[in-house]
Amino acid sequence: MQNRHKKLANILLPAALMTAVLLLWEWYVRHFGVPLYILPKPSQIFETLVLERTVLFSNSLVTVGETLLGLLIAVVAGMLLAVVMDALPMFKTAIYPLLVVSQTVPVIVLAPIFIIYLGFGLAPKVLTVMLMCFFPIVVSFADGMEQIDPNQINLIRSLGAGRLQEYLLVKVPGAASALFSGLKVAATYSISGAVVGEWLSSDKGLGYYMLRAKNGYMLDRVFACVLVVILLSLAMNGLVRLARLVLLPHERGGRRQAPEEV
Q1: SS3 59
Q2: How far apart are the first and last CA of the chain?
Q3: Which of 16-30, 72-86, 113-127, 208-222 has the lowest mean pLDDT?
Q4: Average pLDDT over residues 85-107
Q5: Environment class of residue 17 by beta-carbon count within 10 Å: exposed (0-12), middle (13-18) or buried (19+)?
Q6: For 89, 92, 128, 213, which has the most beta carbons within 10 A of its beta carbon?
Q7: Mean pLDDT lowest among 32-41, 76-85, 91-100, 147-156
Q8: DSSP code of 205?
């Protein structure tokens, strides 16, 4: 019963706080007559979200397509690099600091360079998404393989397994949980990566829509677009969680709690 009340509180308290913030925001704008080009009312934002739903939906499809392609490339490249890092410890020692340093450079700084070399098409947006998603995938997967019990590896080697079988049967499945942990972080940031790329070179997508609305001082549309980005980011995170439950059913069972005592 106590756990049930705690779960309910974890849902109701953030919802109550968010409702209070929105009500205070609405009152402040109405009471002080704040103009739209400075700060729109929450009611205006939700109204715009409904009125612009068709345009937002079509632009969302573009952004989601770029995101999924970039995320897929990041997963494949990240897993391959993590395996190489695990197989070659000296290579991991050499490249790990470079991976960390790469995260200190804002992607929005690199995006114009991508445009110079890759043009204004799909490639710079996909590359921006990939770079934002790449690091957490590589680090989490490499760390997961490093933490595999050596006894499991010794056992499979004693049965005559080679290096390839070692990774396919032990290390990759054993590090899958760590991979999904990094993938959840990457998926949450992936939509933002696509939007950043669209800010700099695009004629469609949520980033382009947001930039056009900002230039017209239509902040209700800007905030509506931000809300869509937030919802899509949460949806990407939810898709990764769902994939984890489907692909790792043993974890689903491990998360079930014992019957509660009333």
Answers
A1: helix
A2: 6
A3: 113-127
A4: 87
A5: exposed
A6: 128
A7: 147-156
A8: S
Sequence-distant (6+) residues with CB within 8 A of 213 are 219, 221, 222, 225
Nearest to 190 by CA among 143, 117, 239: 239
Residue carrying the six token digits 């360079």: 113
Task: Extract the tokens encoding 31.
Answer: 């009471």
Cα angle vertex 177, ends 176, 182, to 5°? 95
Half-sphere exposure of 64 (CA within 13 A, CB side): 17
- Token pair, residue 67, equals 């995101």
* Structure tokens that stand for 113 in this block: 């360079």
3-state secondary structure of 185: helix
Q: Report the distance separating Cα 212 and Cα 56, nearest Å.
A: 13
Under the banding of pLDDT at 50, 70 and 90, the label for residue 165 is confident
* Dihedral, 171, 175, 176, 181 alpha carbons, nearest 10: -160
Q: What pTM did the predictor assign?
A: 0.84
| Closest residue by Cα to residue 108 from 186, 194, 188 | 194
Cα separation of 182 and 141, whole Å? 7
Q: Which amino acid is at 131?
A: L
Each as own residue / partner, the long-range contacts of residues 55-58 (CB below 8 Å, 24 or more positions apart, any chain) are 55/209, 56/206, 56/209, 56/224, 56/225, 56/228, 58/204
Contacts of residue 73, Cβ cutoff 8 Å, sequence gap at least 6: 126, 130
Tell me the average pLDDT across 109-122. 80
Q: What does the block give as tokens for 56? A: 């937002």
Residue 226: what pLDDT? 93
Please give the average per-residue pLDDT across 65-93, as a whole number.
93
